Task: structure prediction
Amino acid sequence: QGQFTLLRDTRTDGSFLVHHFLSFYLRAGCKVCFVALLQSFSHYSIVAQKLGVSLAAAKERGQLVFLEGLKSCLDLLFGEEEQPGQPSPLQFLSGSCRDLRALFDFVRVSLTPADGDSWKGPVLLVDDLSVLLSLGAAPVAVLDFIHYCRVSVCCQLKGNIVVLVHSNEDSEDEENELVVNSLCHHSDLILWAEGLATGFCKDVHGQMKIIKRLSLRQAGEQDVVQIYQYKIQDRNVTFFAPGLSAAVL
Amino acid sequence: ELPAPLLDDTCGKELGDEAAAVKSGDFQDSMKIAWRYQNLPKMEASPTTYTKFGHYYDVSKKMSPELRQSVKWHSFYLHEELSFEPKMKAWNMNSGYARLLQSIQRIISQEGFDGSDPQKKQRNVLRIGIQSLGSVLWGDGVCCSDTPEDPHSLTKFLYVLRGLLRKSLSACIITVPAHLIQNKAIMERVTNLSDMVVGLESFIGSERETNPLYKDYHGLVHVHQIPRLNSLICDVSDTKDLAFRLKRKQFTIERLHLPPDLSDTVSRASKQDLAGSAKLLSSGCGAMAIGKKHLDF
Result:
């Protein structure tokens, strides 16, 4: 395995992909470390239930390690003095350090197989990386964090990583664009959800570009690009070839 | 300085320019901020004839002191607050924002909005209103230059606030002077950290003031983002083009209608002007899709 998948959204919300991968990997029996920076546990839990997976049960049996960024941040800022042995994963918020080492340590410890673990391959899922920039992490720190995660999760533990980033065309957020472009170059697979160029449509919520970066592993290979359109429903997402939405046929 | 609530059918918008200059933030249990008003019919003597949506206020009258005193509310005025409590750990954030967050957290836990006290059966939601976040009133320099010294305090504040709101029974509405924030990257980040983003764009001072397309309206309402919480889908309305109208006692938000082209000079040039404006109309809701390209037939 050892695949790095980048989820990217432009002019639309690509979080449905995060929900998909979360329930997909849990159902496949993988050990998942989910760094959820933007939403609460109950949000993911409720959607996962619609997709047929119980996050609470997965947490209880040790299959899911869930880092709820919002809660962790509150504990860091409003909580008691932390114990020296257990630094908060979001320690960079308090300004005591400028890098994301604590976050990486958290990921590494969560996914290192313990004795008696029988899970198939570890998976790191991040929603979403762009938030770290808003919280004051430098782009280099974010890229370093991802790099260390790749070495640890993809190479050493033969697991997979799935990361969501936002990007906008005409974006003036140069730091974010830097991170996104860098990640694109190093991804094995890019799933790019875009809003339609022609504007809002009730039946077609957006377009998905799937880029298989074969050129990354094999010199001389060409990347394969596929384009689908999609519509998001309450319990699933339907994909279809461009122009062939059910509303049109 | 709060406007008096109305029991008949007129409604008003809280212009509150004085309020913005004096107070930096208000926490109101009972202040139900209704940003949107339905189209209202003409004034009628009987108040129950029409369905009411939201609450209505008359800006020309003040809220009576008895009404204000009967409700539990808290306020936060930055310059009156005590200095930063020394036992709090370093927050690495603008101190005005840090104090505001501490104040909010204190109220949430003392009043039991976080469910911490099982005795208090809190049925109410804590409603928080924050004015002019990001402006110099809060000691933030993001409105002052393109490359502010501390570009992260505003977004960090929003993140921590989000955490507080998520773990308590509360809702918050914030106004941000987006026209003053020159660094657009910060505005993009602010949007990503918010659940719902609505923009008001006034025609005053812009070329649209004299555009015949907009002659009946005073500005546009842009819905940049709507919440997509606890679900894969979100509740997108069909109408993307909204405009507002500000009269003496009424602030209404309506679907934008193109007026009929009745000008004498129905020539190619004027049609192009209108087409140019129509292009700007097709910007959709950020959560679904925004189309910048106009399909020409």
